[in-house]
Design goal:
The structure is a single chain. By secondary structure, this protein is α/β, with parallel strands linked by helices. It has a single domain, classed as Uracil-DNA glycosylase-like domain (Uracil-DNA Glycosylase, subunit E, 3-Layer(aba) Sandwich), CATH 3.40.470. It is built from six helices and five strands, in the order αβααβαβαββα. The chain has a five-stranded mixed beta sheet with strand order 2-1-3-5-4, sandwiched between helices. A hairpin with a 2-residue loop joins strand 4 and strand 5. Helix 3 packs across helix 6 and helix 4 packs across helix 5. The longest helix has 19 residues. The chain is globular and about 45 Å long. The chain starts with 6 loop residues before the first helix and ends with a helix. This is G/U mismatch-specific DNA glycosylase.
Length: 186
């Protein structure tokens, strides 16, 4: 498939899923809200041009260089992974219902208990609030844990989230990286 999906490929990607990048014992499991159509068409997380996840991951110190979405499986070598609150692809996250997000939170909880990452990093405060029932949650570390897994909420890296600059996103990712390293070094 070309690096840019066609209109037909995007349409065909609606309501599909893409595999998690996951393994037991990760340092950080990043969790998107749900895959977009672009990601679904390519089978890659955070694949849409303009999504700031990969640059924030690099500038936050998680990767030694800027990775492309097509290199997502290499994250496992760095003890990092990617999943989503809701698995199905949509054109926009606002197509998801609150019930879907809450069910996604239950599925995600089971996944975290199975794979036991040190940190779960949910990228999207509104999705986190709904999925886990914490309406006053803020970006940053949470008091909520899933088993032994710490939880951190990151800003949504979508280019549509203009409230967070690239530098602000990178700084928040760097805060998580420092916390995850602290946790690992204990």
């Amino acid at each position: 498939m070309s690096t840019r999906p066609t209109k037909d490929q995007l349409a065909a990607a609606h309501n599909t899923t893409i595999p998690d990048v996951i393994a037991p014992g990760l340092d950080v499991l990043f969790c998107g809200i749900n895959p977009g159509l672009y990601s679904g068409a390519l089978g890659q997380h955070f694949a849409r041009p303009g999504n700031r996840f990969w640059p924030a991951l690099h500038k936050g110190g998680f990767t030694p260089r800027l990775y492309a979405p097509s290199e997502q499986d290499q994250l496992l070598d760095l003890k990092l992974g990617i999943t989503n609150v809701v698995a199905r692809t949509t054109a926009r996250a606002d197509e998801l219902t609150d019930d879907e997000l809450r069910e996604g939170g239950r599925i995600l909880t089971a996944k975290v208990l199975e794979y036991r990452p040190a940190w779960l990093a949910v990228v999207g405060i509104t999705a986190y609030r709904t999925a886990f029932g914490f309406p006053k949650a803020r970006v940053g570390p949470q008091d909520h844990r899933i088993g032994d897994t710490h939880v951190w909420v990151l800003p949504n890296p979508s280019g549509l989230n203009a409230h967070w600059t690239p530098a602000g996103l990178a700084a928040e990712f760097a805060r998580l990286r420092a916390a995850s390293e602290n946790c690992r070094n204990r």
